[in-house]
Design brief:
Residues 5-246 form the ABC transporter domain. GO terms for molecular function: ATP binding; ATP hydrolysis activity. It comes from Rhizobium straminoryzae. There is one protein chain. By secondary structure, the protein is α/β, with parallel strands linked by helices. The protein has helices at residues 43-51, 73-79, 89-93, 96-107, 118-134, 150-163, 180-191, 206-212, 230-234, 237-247, and strands spanning 5-14, 17-23, 26-27, 32-36, 58-63, 66-67, 81-83, 168-172, 198-202, 215-220, 223-228. The chain has two domains: 1-80 and 167-248, 3-Layer(aba) Sandwich (Rossmann fold); 84-165, no CATH class. Helix content is 40%, strand content 23%. Helix 4 crosses helix 5 (118-134) and helix 4 packs parallel to helix 6. It starts with a strand and ends with a helix. It binds adenosine-5'-triphosphate.
Length: 248
Amino acid sequence: MTPALETQMLVKRFGGLIVTNEVSLSVRPGARHALIGPNGAGKTTLINLLTGALTPSGGRILLSGEDITATTPFERVRRGIARTFQINQLFNDLTPLESVMLAVGERLGHGNRLFRPLAADRAVSEEAAALLERFRLADVMCLPTRDLPYGKQRLLEIALAIALEPKVLLLDEPAAGVPEEDRHEVLAIVRALPADVTVLLIEHDMDLVFSFADRISVLAAGRLFAEGTVEEISGDPEVKAIYLGDAA
Ligand SMILES: Nc1ncnc2c1ncn2[C@@H]1O[C@H](COP(=O)(O)OP(=O)(O)OP(=O)(O)O)[C@@H](O)[C@H]1O
């Protein structure tokens, strides 16, 4: 099966520092794939290479078998790679319903149409409301985003990315800063996304990773160090040693 997302011998250097070292990662369609590794392992750099925020020093990136290494970040979004939005000032002033309607409208190409049929607006608002319901945000969808609890703001970021109907969703610590009791819920909602959405997750909390992922890749010092199922990775003494070394 053609991987949804693949890197081949991907390299990133910052001056003399090799931060991504010949990483060949394969994410199968529909995967709930987690990327773990100690601080400074190169996880965020890899996500930035995948989105096009950074240009690789070597190697290739393939989306559904097509080489996207030289494409712009915008082109990658158009082709189906999304990462979570950071809530900015604009979204803080809007309600979740307004924000998601903008994202859905953007996807449908309504963005620059001044006059549009009422029925089209209704379809957009219905889709936005259904999406917010799925993300358990229905009760707050008409409040200003700035008044939402932090955990709900993180869910809104993911809902905004999903409104674009991505093929591949990249999540960089989506539960960071979310209260302990809500963290599992955030990941459970992501896990329950439609099977045709491929998810690559960076997460530090091993409890969350083990309950979320069906495949885990371990990065250490820029290299892909191990890959396997939850059982394989959680029982791997070398992976444990890396984390214990990190904690030490
Ligand atoms: N723009 C840059 N210039 C120089 N070095 C950088 C740059 N960006 C990242 N690095 C270095 O690359 C290494 C990997 O950083 P990265 O943020 O990708 O790791 P990470 O695995 O996401 O870490 P964390 O879990 O702490 O977020 C670090 O040593 C970092 O200092």
